[in-house]
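Worked problem 6 (solution included).
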Amino acid sequence: MKQESKRSWFVLPYLLIVGVAAARLSMSLPFNFVPVLSCLLFFGAKRPKRELVAPCLALMGVDIFLTKIGYGYPISLDHAVTWLWYGMATMLGATLLRRSYTLPRALTGVLLASISFFVASNLAVWMVWNMYPKTVGGLVDCYVAALPFFRNSAISETLATGMIAAFVRWSETRKEAAFMKSTSPVSM
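Solution. The predicted structure is:
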């Protein structure tokens, strides 16, 4: 049953990453309403550690394309923070969720990832770009301006995490029922 369990989770983590990449490329989703971190957490939880670099590289490629071609901006140091968080989210999924992907554990992971990403990425924006004065007030303004993005990101991450956790639970329950049915004695 363990081998079948590994095989059954082969496709979904990759499909979620492809879906997130496609959603990011569409550039039509308002205020960052794309559940990148929840999909990376799930990928980290369900795929072997040797594969964890694949979704990070895919999303880095999307970021580079969007930044250079879509928005016409240069690649800067704040991108490195985002890319480090991709790796951090997959590793968090591998450490926190690999043994047990439950809703409370997944929500804890996505909350940690989302809040830490908000703090670090906006600090990087404040430090790298000249959008805000390099003062405490400028830093506060940077975080305040980012709150609508954080709100929508937190909503999308929470909803996606809930849906993924519900699907995982449904799938595991279904497999357990099928296993029990296949091992129960046949009555005549």
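Discussion: The chain has a mean pLDDT of 90.
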